[in-house]
Protein 1
Amino acid sequence: MADQEELAGLELAYQVEQFYNREARFMNQRQHRQWLETMVHQDIHYWLPINENRFAKDRRPEVTPEDGGIYDDNYGDLEFRISRLETGQVWMEDPPSRIRHLISNVEVYHTDDDKLLNVYSNFHVYRNRRQRDETNLIGGRVDLLVREGDSFKILKRRINLDMRVVLDKNLYFFM
Amino acid sequence: MVNVDNLIDLENGIQSKKVFWDQEVYDQEIERIFGRSWLFLTHESQIPEPGDFFTTYMGEDPIIVARQMDGSIKAFINSCTHRGNQVCHADSGNTRSFNCSYHGWSFGIDGELAMVPLEAEVYFNKLDKAAHRLPEVTQVDNYRGFIFGCFDAEAPPLQEWLGDMAWYMDSWADTGGGAELIGTPMKTILKCNWKVPSENFIGDGYHVGWTHSAALQMIGGPLSALSGNGELPPMDDVGAQITTRHGHGFGVIWELGHAIHRDPGDYIQFQQQTLPEVIEKKGEWRGKFYTGHWNSGLFPNCSFLYGTNTFKIWHPKGPHEIEVWTWTLVQKNMSPELKREIKKQAIQTFGTAGTLESDDGENMETCTRTNRGFQTRRGTMNSSMGMDGDGRHPELPGVLGASFIGETSYRGFYRFWSEIMKADSWADIHKNDETWIDNWLGKDAVSGMAARNIA
């Protein structure tokens, strides 16, 4: 698919990369509400499907949004998660954990609609909690971004976490 | 052999912290509990067609559960009888055979050894193939679509193992078309002992208001008053705690089955539509249970939240780690749209990124990890809440506590844990079948709930 799409020019690709860097900084600094309000589209579908290990010959259809997922969130769902973090009563975040997002492999493509961009990227999320509790989660994202002035909003995000058994106690953070 | 009496004080509701840490306790659990109990394998809705299979564990043993050509279900050990290699690495699927990746031995969907490469040339046709089938799980049976397996031929039949717990579960497992599990399970890990979540789900109404304070506050609705234990409902009328013969038990909050869902309208409507059927088939009491919220456990390591539609198994991975598998539990007669909506809400609360799930994991890990300390491990844990209120109820089976927020089902879980850990065989356990309540609580113990006559 991506091969037939028109690659974005240098300036646009740079803007998207900076958009992702800013997003990562918001996450790392716990500015979740700022992220939601300035970077997320009201009609977002934020989706992290459940992986299953299947034989290569398995003929069942690929997972679709209809199957739900670990995240299957609209704007209100994301807002709910963020509000919970803001109550000050999430004991596992007190003292706060540390989190760092590294974003790479950003590919930006035009679509048939001038306002929409298809973007692929990879992430490495490092979490460090309590004294010596650490996890590393690596995956990819497929985004549909809406151009808004000089910036963008995330209209669709599909997150692919590259593991079957999630080697962490939860995924209550944004990727 | 571990001296179980040094670990469990039934009379005072006390457990040694060693039960969450010691390797020798764990080894004995694997042999005596996981080797002799009925363990949840899968739900028949997960393998509907002949040739469908699902892979899981019984204790730490890898297991294949497969739908046979005649529609029956068999389970066998997922390890080649030649050199022990795992023969199936897929989570689920449909197949005619399981082919070992080492030397190519091929086993049928029935576990029989069907084909051995170069059989004539290298074994000279002298290999006894019948003797090399994948070892079958000794007993496999089905309770209303939930498939269980047991490695002990002497264990009682599944229906007897579930006992009074099945009487309660029938209120929703035998109404509304029956229950089913939908989707592939989420899988995650927790560095905790398998009993920490098992005991939490079976009987911990106490933590709800505090551990989940933030989520309850945000969800709003009838449970939000519990947030931070701010405003407590009248404790004698809020629900019940129940434990049964083989350690299964639950806590129920009346009328609030739906309360952890953010948008429960369609679910409430389904319950109201089906409630007359439940009362007609199962009576008034089970109608009351049907619309309640249950935090529940099937001994040893299967837990579910009826109402929040979450079904879990905690696979032990040594004394200090588990794999958590989570499905969505629905009733078959729900519309596809309602099932989809419930699945979304159930995963949003108790899935891998759940708004309540993430509160629990941290507690469960450190309840285990602190016992690394020698002095810590010499200490004990307390589950004495509401002890004086445990006893019989004139109309309900099992042992009931005084209130929903109590630790009756904790005590019941460790009562049976202690019994099966000590017993040399099922014959020993059967000796207590008629007298377990008398021996535990005395002949005259009446549930605090019954004593207040709130029924």
Protein 2
Amino acid sequence: MSKRLVRRFGGLLAVLALLGAACGSDDDEAADEPAATTEAADDPAATDATEVELVQADDDLLDTVMARGELKCGVSGAAVAFSETQPDGSQTGFDADYCRAVAAAIFGDAEAVEFVPLTAAERFTAVQTGAVDVLMRNTTWTQGRDTEVGMDFGPTTYYDGQQLMARAGDGFTSASTVADIDGAIVCTNAGTTTEQNIADAADAAGVSIQLNTFEDFDIVTTNFINGACNIVTTDGSALVGRKANQQPDGEEWVIFPPTPISKEPLGPTYGQNQSRFADVVNWTVYATIIADEKGITSGNVDARLGDGSLDAEAVRLLGGDGELQTAMGLSADAFHSVISQVGNYDEIYSRHLNPVGLSREGSANAGWLDGGLIYAPPAR
Amino acid sequence: MADGGDVPVIGDKPVIERVAARPAEETYRSPGEWVRKNLFPTPFNSFLTVAVGLFVLFSARGLLNFVFSEERGWDAVRTNLRLIFTHAYPEEQYVRVWVCVGVVAVLAGLSLGLFASRGDGLRLRKIANGLNAAAVAIAGGIVLREPSVLVGADGETVRDGDGVVRQSFAEAMTDRWGWWLVAAILAVIALALRRVPERSDGSHPAVRALDFAVGALAVPVISAWVYPWGHYAFADGEFIAEPGRTVAMSTKLPWTVMWVLAVASLIAGRWVRSRVDERALARLRVVVSCTWLLVPFVLYWVVLRDPDLDWDRILTVDMPLALAFGIGGGIVLRWLTKDGIGEFGRISAVALLGLAAFHWVAAFMGWYPMLQKVRISFLLLAVMALLAHNFSGEAAKRRRLVLAWFVITTVFHYFATVMNTPSTVETPTEALIGGFAVTLVVAVFTLMLSFPLGVVLALARTSRLPIFRVMSTAYIEVVRGVPLITILIFFVVILPLFLPANMEISLFASATLGYTLFSAAYLAENVRGGLQSIRRGQYEASDAVGLSTVQRTVFIVLPQSLRASIPPLVGQVIATFKETSLLAIIGVFDILRMANSVIPAQTQFLGIKREGLLFVSLVYWVFSYMLSKQSQRLERRLGVGER
């Protein structure tokens, strides 16, 4: 009897061993059950799913992105003029175009972007877990975020700042200051720093205000239009957009004070300690700024390269010698692709931000030669 | 309307007889009589009628003024219909979406043809009353709505010192001639239906309710051929007023095809039903039901995604693996069901379970690599082996178990391969689909996964084995004590941090997982309610005829308890469907998020939010109402509450 038992178990084990041998040894299928499916099976970097780590610190992000053939770019998907989802599902806007610019630099193809729409709450986790390579999502550069959250910030592409908007009929002008709003009902959206900023500014100016907060800025604007609020406050870029699109006939809205009450520098954000990838993102931004400075646009870049009217720096940047770009791990004409496919800073800006009434002139977003803050280190 | 309010007194027929002859002959009262009887019977009731009536009128007026106001930006909804329903699914791949709709239409038609009971039918007079009521409602709406705002030649609204200038009442009434026409047409149809003579046997002429519903669906389909619903196409950042490119223009042909498919399969289903005997019909019904279960997987993973299959890998890895498991597992199962294997079979099954569990422990500890689907296959095989002793003995039973294993292996390996293959459908954003499609997909997958889980949890909670009971109770109480949004945020924000490096879980998958675990706990409680309604005698009787625990549960207890818990189960289904709107908070681009934040952020529709939200509520209501109606039908057919 015991002999039979052994034989039976032996047979069973032999079958199982055969099955095990047939299983292969690669483990790139990370999860097979329908609820937890990953589409990462085609990722050549995905080899060992058993090692638990928070961030892939060993992998070079630039190599990973290049191997993937597509840039994963975190955007808002619901930010007027910065990243809007169009009725056909495509992404347009200032941030979306900077995603395209980085893709053009890495792959020579501005369309090699996979946009990942993120909410404000998700965006930092997405960078930390590597769900996105770069975040272009109106993220203000602050000390805390830079040092604590595990991300690095690139050069600022848009200098925003909190401002107030009121009706001209109530006696406000664009030269009004916070000192003029005594006793007003000020509305803003809850859960952001704007609430704290306006309270601090009112305190500093020695005026008392009634602060009402609403869930989001659409509701704030509705309350402003129907008169429940005297003044609304949020980032200047958003106020200009609202004024351009929602100001009723026969009413005049003004935005003040001329100097914003807070600093909101917005720019690209990426995971910490990825200096090769960071260089690529930073210099893509700088390339658009330098091109703007020298008047090189997507329309004239080829003509100006051909007729020799460019200085040595511009030629170097656009791929003349090219060793600066190849040293970064890019192709020599990487920034030529950026300018010809996406455009220079001014083109990107005026394409998306001029239509909602944001002009560069006189703002912090003018070039440094025109008194603004948009400045790039030299390309040499 | 005039049929309503029959109190069982009036007429010369005794009450008893009316109850006995169920399709009771209804006494027809003139509208005046009906109004006096039902609306103004006593002074107090008259007062109530007037008060409530005024409230309803003012609410209706407010809603009408809101919906039809010139200030409303309905273009935001009409232009973004594509975004609202499928997000960024590429236009040139839309035929895939239509294939999915078509498959559902065919299956729905077949199911209705094979399953639907005849019922009493819908009397023509009742339809006529409904149409009359609709005509009156439209006429009332025309009169109630305030006169429109005047628009000048420059397209701007005309204003004077007091604000906008409106039309005179007479102008407004003549201006709305289109609506008057609609009301008149409805009234004429109602009149015509009333004139249809009674049948020769004296019964009222009637149509089948199902036929009427299908016919009514033809109205919107045909209307797309007549009127260009929707907005002109939006391309390259501009509105292109190009005739023939509105939503209706681009969808009228597909919708017509869908309608024809549904009708054809309904007729086919009825024809088959009239041809085959009861046994074959029962089998057909099982086939259709199983198809319904498989269809979501096929449609989402195969049709919509169009997997980019790597045949080298499939031929060298996936197929041999599936074959090895199918054949090897088949041999093992056949051996385990052999006559007289007795205790030894059970020990082997438990050993197999131990081996399967060991692979998972090894994966967790990182001892040796193994394909995930192999681990799952071992687990499935172990479960089947544990069940094997129920199928021992007869050759036919043993064959059935092995056959079931083949089917399970094939289906599982097929989907595991398809799901892990990248999609060929390129979308500009990360997600394959969004909008209402993602609502449907998450709801369907959640229900398919949480129903079995919920039943298992309910059985475990009522089990006599303390380990199962305690674990299940702990799980259910923990999940029920945590708000859904907390679970969702946990799964979406925290879960990715715990995953192994290089392993990603899509937002959609983690959200579905969260919903499933949440919904299963509630379903389990609903099923447990049903389980407790089963009398002891049922258990004793099944023990007396010698059924095993599994047989008793599967064949005696579960069918009765599931039938008893249909109303709460459907309530949970509707709740889950509506709870998918929480996806908007965790960043999935579902239908609510489209209306709430995406569309109001488009430069040309900045801040236009209420229109979209109203539309989204309408979509949710239509689907929830359909579910609720279906559950009522199901309850009637299974006689819940009557036996």
